[in-house]
Design a protein that fits this description.
Blueprint lengths: L4 H14 L8 E2 H7 L6 H10 L11 E2 L16 H8 L4 E2 L2 E2 L2 H4 L16
Parallel strand pairs: 1-2
Antiparallel strand pairs: 3-4
C-alpha cells in the first residue's frame, strides 16, 4: 500500500484512538474503524497498526480482531511480543486469543464525549 497524505491522516486518527485504549483492555480493528466513521475500513486500521511498528506511543498490541485473536502478532517481529505485552497488563491469552474477550473489550464509541473530532 502506498503512502498518501490521506492515508497518513487516517493512520494518525487511528493512532489517536489506539492511545485511548485503557491499560489491560483490548479493542478491535472494526471498533476503531466504526468510531472513525469508516465502518468498512477495519483492514485499513490493521495497515495503520502494522505501519506504527516501533512507535512506543501507540499501544498496537491492544488491537485484535473481532473475535479477540491476535492476528497482528506477526507485525511484532515474529515473536510472542504482542502476547507478552498483553499478559504484562494482566490480559490472559490462550492459543493466540484473548481470554474473556467480551469482558475486556473496550468500545471507543461508548466513551463519554463527542465522536472523534476531525481536528485531532
Amino acid at each position: 500500500m502506498s503512502s498518501t497524505k490521506e492515508n497518513d491522516n487516517f493512520f494518525e486518527k487511528v493512532y489517536a484512538v489506539a492511545r485511548k485504549i485503557p491499560y489491560g483492555r483490548v479493542t478491535s480493528y472494526g471498533a476503531i474503524a466504526g468510531y472513525l466513521g469508516t465502518r468498512r475500513s477495519a483492514r485499513m486500521v490493521g495497515w495503520a497498526m502494522n505501519a506504527c511498528n516501533g512507535r512506543e506511543d501507540v499501544p498496537a498490541h491492544r488491537v485484535v480482531n473481532r473475535k479477540g485473536i491476535l492476528t497482528g502478532k506477526f507485525h511484532f517481529g515474529g515473536t510472542n511480543l504482542m502476547q507478552q505485552l498483553l499478559e504484562s497488563e494482566g490480559v490472559e491469552v490462550y492459543e493466540n486469543q484473548v481470554v474473556n474477550f467480551d469482558e475486556l473489550f473496550w468500545d471507543p464509541s461508548e466513551e463519554p464525549g463527542d465522536k472523534f473530532a476531525e481536528d485531532q
